[in-house]
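Board notes (copied after class):
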Amino acid sequence: MSPLPANVNAEDSRAFVTQAKQTVARATREAVRWNGPETGPQAPKGKVIALVAEDLRNGGIIGVAQGAREAAVAMGWTLRVFDGAGISTGRAKALADALASKPDGLVLCGSDAVENKLALAAIARAGTPIVGWHTGPQPGPIAGTSLAMNVTSAPIEVAQLAALAAVAQSDGHAGVVILTDSHFSIAMAKAKAMEDVIRACKNCTLLEVRDVALSDSNDRMPAITQQLMLRYGKRWTYTLAINDLYFDYAIATLTTAGIPANDLSLISAGDGSASAFLRIQANTYQTATVAEPLNQQGWQVMDELNRLIAGQAVSGFVAPIHLVNADNAGADGGKQFRYDPDNGYRDRYRKIWNP
């Protein structure tokens, strides 16, 4: 169910803000009990899985890869990681190298499935099942591609929740810049969802939607941050981003400029990186992230591949969304600077794979 407040006219600003605060409060609760799969095929020993990462500088991708490796050990499988380095030539080489390794299954991690459908088709023709993470704008299979399951939290709900956090924190008076990456359909869908929420907030202001390639964020964000400060001044009070990575390279500019941490709030619609947790816990600009259960999703992509290898359908599990802020950043894995739900998912999957 979408977290966007329902049946509230944008003119009814107080009701909109009140519902935003209620939605945020529900989303910050500690992890609920496991609601994923309870049954499935036993894992055969000795399978080799290739994981093609869009860019291993991305904390979300690293988290999923670490979870997949952890799961592979539990299954008696081998995981081989191929890094695309965030560029088209690197991605093409990683996919080609993965195909040449003749894996029993492939995980596409962080790359757009439609953009890479020809390479994925070649891998599928070799009889290799394919599962993805953040490869499109919705969970589930991606039409027109060979990808059987896109593992992700519901991205539109994630984006709406991030925007609602800005509405709630600002009491309905946020001046917002949105950062997105037009190379990815999931990023553009998130940006549009965040924009819709801010426009529905009567006394909020959408200052700008800025297209910045995630792979260029280390080079571009310092200058962009400086430009935004000069252009908007004190009107700029919130930044909503499709990923925490942008903030990694904006903080130094804000600090050097002497911007007080309570004058500008950074909120991310994914993925809950270690650096994001550090910033939130230290009250250093970033106030929230809609964190993905990255390690759990790493286990899930391996479980979905195990089902496909066994000739069964994927589980289709979609994890509930969760907002991390200063109040709950120490729970559910927060002491290790990540969102790792304390719901027993490892034992649940082990029981399926090794009954």
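Comment from the instructor: The mean pLDDT is 94. The first strand starts at residue 48 and ends at 53.
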